[in-house]
Specification:
Shape: globular
CATH topology of the largest domain: Rossmann fold
Number of domains: 2
Helix content: 25-40%
Number of strands: 22
Strand order of the largest sheet: 6-9-10-3-11-12
Distance between the termini: 76 Å
Number of helices: 17
Radius of gyration: 24 Å
Structural class: alpha/beta
CATH class of the largest domain: Alpha Beta
């Protein structure tokens, strides 16, 4: 009698090629029954590709896959589902205008006489949501709920299908610190129930907190597997990027100059409820300083940035840049006057996904004489040279260089492209919203250095971040936003994460002068 396999999944010697790149080069990954196994690697190391092979979205050129000791061919995601494999993708696969319940049952609906039977489905979804602590409103539309709620919907989708092997692709990239803690607990509960979990990440602290073992990929190759209890964050980061990474942000004293941005009594409407999302906010950012707008997600930071950058009109208030009133200026005018914006949602506001990388890099400058001739035609050679310069400087990795479609790049490399474009414009004011979202430790170190270089060159930087480490390490001043108001101004050198947390939760507030 054959003994049952100790592995839920074995991927042996997997090779997957794309034009101009070997995404997975002879990779082996073994997931034990009932363990949380982390897959760690830089942006573009091949992590998502390997999981897409397992989920049937891609077919490997070489290699074999075994599920519970049996060799399988996973030709599409339906086969993966039949084998008990579910996946939460980095960019969620949800229908925006459908409800939470409709998204969960989509594709596995129960019908009777051609009519949907939702009552049983609703009971099952509510029971699962209760059991695993995944609170959702089944009747809410996806477009109206937070990113954290959307993720819970994706997890319930897997559990509704009775999946035993769960893949989480960069699950914490878009979550608040509180939502991340909740997700970690959910993953531990799922593993305790006997589910086997593959957890793709490049956040070392999270891997150390939840994973039993960790496999590392670098530039498409398998580097090794370690038990997390026997390793350190420093060792993992060196395996991941091939060098030692400095986790501490190095910066000198700020040399603060004239006011660059002056916001007075700004109010911005909310799309979700009748109250304003931003209520009478005033703040000033000077040349030569980094000011961080901190807060738990959904407290008006997004709407504040929309009002500031011209994506939404103001209900009241004014915005001045270098003493000039730009309250009613169009987005391009703000850009030409020296405002750069690294947006929160890179797909919605940062890139045209079906354009090439080179076209995305000149999106706000294509009309300049360097890139367009007098007859109005694009100077393609100059655009190519400019793109190649930025690709080299910012280490933007893509299969076909400047001609790669933005859609085909990894999330982290899409982010690097936006950062390169916005900083290279030489702005007077850089508005950086979650600039390190979805980046690995090596790339985060690079972004922080770029922000500090802007500050040291006498530019003004407004950073909006949900990452507590980033909020404490990078800025010269912290402004805390709670329910659409600035409730505290803190000096990162003199405050603690605990005190910051009290302001963010609304338990503490001061009168703040702009």
């Amino acid at each position: 009698m054959s003994t049952p396999s100790p592995y839920a999944i074995e991927m042996l010697h997997i090779t997957k090629r794309f034009p101009g790149i070997i995404a997975n080069d002879d990779v082996t990954l073994q997931l034990k029954q009932g363990e949380i196994h982390a897959l760690l690697g830089e942006n573009g190391a091949g992590k998502s590709t390997l999981m897409s092979v397992l989920f049937g979205l891609y077919q490997p050129e070489e290699g074999e896959i075994y599920v519970k000791g049996k060799k399988v061919e996973i030709n599409d995601p339906n086969v993966a589902n039949e084998l008990g494999i579910g996946m939460v993708h980095q960019h969620f696969k949800l229908v925006e205008c459908f409800t939470v319940l409709d998204n969960i049952i989509l594709g596995v609906e129960t019908t009777k006489g051609g009519f949907l039977q939702k009552d049983e489905a609703r009971k099952k979804v509510m029971a699962l949501s209760e059991k695993y602590g995944l609170r959702v409103d089944p009747d809410a539309k996806i477009q109206d709920i937070t990113v954290g709620m959307q993720q819970r919907t994706e997890i319930l989708k897997m559990l509704y299908r009775d999946n035993e092997i769960l893949i989480f692709d960069e699950p914490t990239a878009v979550l608040t610190p509180q939502e991340i803690e909740e997700l970690m607990q959910i993953m531990k509960n799922l593993a305790a129930e006997g589910k086997s979990i593959l957890f793709i990440s490049h956040k070392l602290a999270e891997i150390m907190a939840v994973a039993d073992r960790c496999s590392v990929l670098r530039k498409g190759k398998y580097i090794g597997t370690v038990e997390t209890k026997n390793t350190t964050m420093e060792e993992l980061s060196a395996m991941m990027v091939g060098r030692n990474v400095n986790f501490h942000v190095e910066k000198g004293e700020a040399k603060v100059g004239k006011p660059v941005l002056e916001v007075r009594n700004m109010s911005v409407a909310s799309k979700v409820h009748k109250n304003n999302a931003v209520k009478n906010v005033s703040l000033t950012v000077h040349a030569g300083e980094i000011v961080c707008l901190a807060g738990i997600d959904g407290n008006g930071q997004t709407e504040f940035v929309y009002g500031l950058t011209g994506l939404e009109p103001l209900v009241s208030g004014s915005v001045k840049m270098l003493g000039e009133d730009i309250t009613k200026a169009k987005i391009r005018e703000r850009s030409l006057k020296g405002m750069s914006h690294i947006p929160e949602d890179r797909h919605k506001h940062g890139l045209v996904l079906d354009y090439s990388l080179e076209d995305n890099l000149v999106l706000q400058r294509y009309f300049e004489p360097e890139f367009t001739n007098k007859a109005g035609f694009l100077r393609r050679d100059n655009i190519r040279k400019y793109a190649e310069k930025l690709i080299g400087e910012y280490d933007i990795r893509s299969g076909q260089g400047p001609v790669t479609k933005a859609r085909a790049m990894s999330g982290g490399n899409q982010q690097k492209a936006i950062i390169a474009r916005e900083i290279d414009k030489g702005p007077e004011l850089l508005v950086a919203v979650q600039p390190t979202r979805g980046l690995d430790v090596g790339a985060i170190e690079g972004v922080h250095k770029s922000l500090i270089a802007q500050r040291d060159a006498g530019k003004a930087v407004l950073l909006v971040s949900l990452e507590l480490d980033e909020v404490m390490d990078v800025p010269d001043r912290i402004l805390v936003m709670y329910e659409g108001e600035i409730v505290g101004e803190l000096d990162p050198k003199k405050t603690t994460q605990e005190e910051l947390g009290l302001y963010m939760a609304g338990a503490k507030r001061d009168e703040v002068k702009a």
